[in-house]
Amino acid sequence: MGQAELAGTVAVVIDVLRATTTITHAIANGAECVIPLLTIEQAREQHAAHPTTLLGGERGGQRIDGFDLGNSPTEYAPAVVAGKQILFTTTNGTKAMQACRAAKTIYIASFVNLTALCNELAEHETIQIVCAGTEGEITREDVLLAGAIVDQLTADAQPIDRNDQAQIAADAWQEAKTELTATSLAQRLKSSRGGRNVLRIGLEGDIEIAATLDKFNVVPRLDPSSWQIRDHRTTPQ
Amino acid sequence: MGQAELAGTVAVVIDVLRATTTITHAIANGAECVIPLLTIEQAREQHAAHPTTLLGGERGGQRIDGFDLGNSPTEYAPAVVAGKQILFTTTNGTKAMQACRAAKTIYIASFVNLTALCNELAEHETIQIVCAGTEGEITREDVLLAGAIVDQLTADAQPIDRNDQAQIAADAWQEAKTELTATSLAQRLKSSRGGRNVLRIGLEGDIEIAATLDKFNVVPRLDPSSWQIRDHRTTPQ
């Protein structure tokens, strides 16, 4: 989807494994804000100017040299992140956020805050869901969450219009939903492209965390003007 | 998917509504070959050089001025097409075929020849499925057929590897398959983007035809050297 199509819209960015899941953990665990940046250099420059910030993110799935934190949700524990500003850069997730910069508002989506997010999204008339994918290709873990969002919004009182991509995602989620157990979603995520990448670097536990539905009641929102992600209750609409 | 990725592969082109469904009708009904062309001008030039050919295709869903046939499968009846070479140009389908020109071989897929096609595809180790979509965007009717192909190939003895896009399509098809009746597939196709376009021009019957599983036992194949679509039994591998 091009910038032009996103101008002025309500965008929802999905990178289930792991950027948006990790950001949601950071915000839920009390980080003051997360600042998503495209490049390692940008993150290092901002950190040099603001030494109290934490540096977080990954390249090739691994923590970046000299960074305080990688891209595992478990690293973003309350004791570490509470009250902190976090400069954050990942391979696909922060690119997807950057691609949404013309949007009116940008929500950060994950399974761990699905219901809280959907309650907030229900207030908006039109929503553009942006899946980060991997190397420019759509991935199953992101499509499953997109489908879960479409499904949950449809379950509400009013029927909603969806384009074909939203319908395909909802179709795919129905298949996951029919046998949804504590471990079945994690199993599906493990077999996805993002999941296989995370398994390859030995972080299976991160996938199980990412598959935990509604662990948190926060809705991280990226403000296009301040370029900071905060819980939606603490940022102006 | 870029040309480079398709070089040397076995490609399967899908444009359920309606190009690949219509081509399958033409071949099943005895056309000597179908020649897919990008532009109206190319079709007219070739027709001028070979006046015994038939001109077929659409723009905006409608038959093109001066053409013999539009893009409805019903127009390609045996009495009309038997023994004929058909010059064929459509908005999305023939573009998708052109995008596959670097492939080793190119199959034309539709629900009306699903089983015959899958029997043939089972002979190949690696397959790239290319959905024509609409204006560059993936559409549900094409994804459903892609999923049906993945599903049918998986049902065979050997398990197959699929990338995430193939898995998403298979997920989406599972949802359609659980309640697959004579009319339920047509209903799904009608609500797809391609379906809504066909309904808009008053050709609901074309969608019902496109949703008829295994009407034919032919496998149209586009030979990248001769650039002709013929039944696979009559073209060299």
Automatic annotation (TrEMBL), chains A, B:
Highest taxon of the lineage: Bacteria
Recorded GO MF terms: 2-phosphosulfolactate phosphatase activity; magnesium ion binding; sulfopyruvate decarboxylase activity
Entry's transmembrane regions: none
Signal peptide span: none
Catalytic activity: (2R)-O-phospho-3-sulfolactate + H2O = (2R)-3-sulfolactate + phosphate
Cofactor entry: Mg(2+)
The protein's name in its UniProt record: Probable 2-phosphosulfolactate phosphatase
Organism: Blastopirellula marina
